[in-house]
Amino acid sequence: MSDAPKSGGPVTEEFLANLAAASRILAAQGVVDAFGHISHRHPDNPDRYFMSKSMAPALVSPDDIIEYDLESEPCNADGRGSFLERFIHGGIYKARPDVQSVVHSHSPSVIPFGLVDEKMCAMFHNAAFVAAGVPVFDISEKFGATDMLVSDHAKSDAFNEILGDKDIALMRAHGSVACGTTIQEAVFHAVYTEVNARIQHWTQALSNGRPIAALSEEEGVLADGPNQGAALRAWDLWRREIREQTNW
Amino acid sequence: MSDAPKSGGPVTEEFLANLAAASRILAAQGVVDAFGHISHRHPDNPDRYFMSKSMAPALVSPDDIIEYDLESEPCNADGRGSFLERFIHGGIYKARPDVQSVVHSHSPSVIPFGLVDEKMCAMFHNAAFVAAGVPVFDISEKFGATDMLVSDHAKSDAFNEILGDKDIALMRAHGSVACGTTIQEAVFHAVYTEVNARIQHWTQALSNGRPIAALSEEEGVLADGPNQGAALRAWDLWRREIREQTNW
Amino acid sequence: MSDAPKSGGPVTEEFLANLAAASRILAAQGVVDAFGHISHRHPDNPDRYFMSKSMAPALVSPDDIIEYDLESEPCNADGRGSFLERFIHGGIYKARPDVQSVVHSHSPSVIPFGLVDEKMCAMFHNAAFVAAGVPVFDISEKFGATDMLVSDHAKSDAFNEILGDKDIALMRAHGSVACGTTIQEAVFHAVYTEVNARIQHWTQALSNGRPIAALSEEEGVLADGPNQGAALRAWDLWRREIREQTNW
Amino acid sequence: MSDAPKSGGPVTEEFLANLAAASRILAAQGVVDAFGHISHRHPDNPDRYFMSKSMAPALVSPDDIIEYDLESEPCNADGRGSFLERFIHGGIYKARPDVQSVVHSHSPSVIPFGLVDEKMCAMFHNAAFVAAGVPVFDISEKFGATDMLVSDHAKSDAFNEILGDKDIALMRAHGSVACGTTIQEAVFHAVYTEVNARIQHWTQALSNGRPIAALSEEEGVLADGPNQGAALRAWDLWRREIREQTNW
Question: Among A195, B19, C192, D78, which residue's CB has the most CB atoms within a 10 Å radius?
Answer without folding.
Answer: C192
